Amino acid sequence: MRKQHYKIPFTGLKLGVHEFSFEVTETFFESDDYLEIEKANCHVNLTLEKQSTMLVLTFEISGLVTVPCDRCSYPTEVEANGEYSLIAKFSEMELQNTEEIIYLPPSEYQIDIRKFIFEFIQLSLPVKKTHLEGSCNQDVMKTLDNYLITENQSEKDSEDNSGVDPRWAALNKLKKKN
């Protein structure tokens, strides 16, 4: 993968809006040793608005990535969709970057958007990455069911526990009556 591909030389651009397009596959993530994303097929549209004192970048991400399922750990495809904005301001002083604003020295002539694409794809993934209900690996699910503690099992285990302090046993009896 060519890292130069993600560096946009903005000094040669006229003031105004400019469009860029990128295809992101699993090779994009290989150099970062990011193991969660096994496959990727994402499209990133970047709108760069060049102004005299700043750049306004809008990233539109759409596509599919394959990640381990949170339930069974087998690969599952999830959507990666989102729109994110970033402002790059030019400043002589070294200022602290924030989530929405980065600062570039006025002598800078290009911006590397690779790390932003990486972060925005991560942000666009759903919080819960699972197969559709019933589509998980059945062998893994059966094994997990063997270790699942249900409410009835928990009550039975507490009743079977003969070493329980009698005061707690009395309180448990009161709790069961209510």
SSE layout:
Layout lengths: L6 E3 L6 E10 H5 L8 E12 L3 E15 L6 E5 L2 E9 L10 E4 L5 E3 L1 H11 L13 H10 L3 H10 L5 H12 L1
Parallel strand pairs: 6-7
Antiparallel strand pairs: 1-8, 2-3, 3-4, 4-5, 4-6
Overview of this protein structure:
This protein is of the alpha+beta class. The chain folds into 2 domains: about 5-125, no CATH class; about 150-175, no CATH class. It has 5 helices and 8 strands. It has helices at about 25-30, 115-125, 140-145, 150-160, 165-175, and strands at about 5-10, 15-25, 40-50, 55-70, 75-80, 80-90, 100-105, 110. Strands 2, 3, 4, 5, 6 and 7 form a 6-stranded mixed β-sheet that branches. Strand 3 and strand 4 (about 55-70) form a beta hairpin. The longest helix has 12 residues, at about 165-175. The protein is elongated and about 80 Å long. The mean pLDDT is about 85.
